[in-house]
Design brief:
mainly alpha
Amino acid sequence: MMSIIGNTIKWTPYMLSGCALTIKLFLIVIVLSLPFGLLLTFLYTGKSKIIGAVVGFYILVMRGTPLLLQIFFVWYGLPLIPKIGKYVTFSDRFTAGCVAYIFNYAAYFAEIFRGGLLSVDKGQFEAAKVLGLSEAQTTFKIVLPQMIRISLPAVSNEAIILIKDTALITTLGLYDLLKVTNNIVNTTTNITAFGVAACFYLIMSSVLTFVFNRLEKKFAF
């Protein structure tokens, strides 16, 4: 027991450095993919059928192919595409990974928001029109608050999945929590480090759950 505690104390600084990259990746992706997903939702459900079809195809591809494949494509594949690869390149692996995650998760959030949008009572649109509200006022004052409230549980679930999916960034050789933990296990041949890493992931997931539970209570009416 004492050896486990001692090892945990010794490994913690290294694992915290891995956690820092994991959390950084998570924050960048969640902050950028949520508004991107919201934009995709309105484009998908908008009046233009052509734009809606393009966005629908994009969502289909992003949700229908593995995130790991998309990460590899952004970092390894894009530079190899003639004409495109010359201009669409990334200076570092972390940026490439962030782009892949953002485009992937935006597609999932778009579908979540679309479900929330479809759940809003159609009669409220008519009521807003009778009251003389513009389309923008109807969207921001009536539709968005209800859509967000309805979508929050699914967004919360997706955010927790994202915390775990950040481990895929290790395939690009970046030292996130999983990569650091794997190096510790390979060096010490002590699998206890995996248990410590699991505790770190559990703590991050628990914090997220707490935050989203508070948000759900705030938007509840």
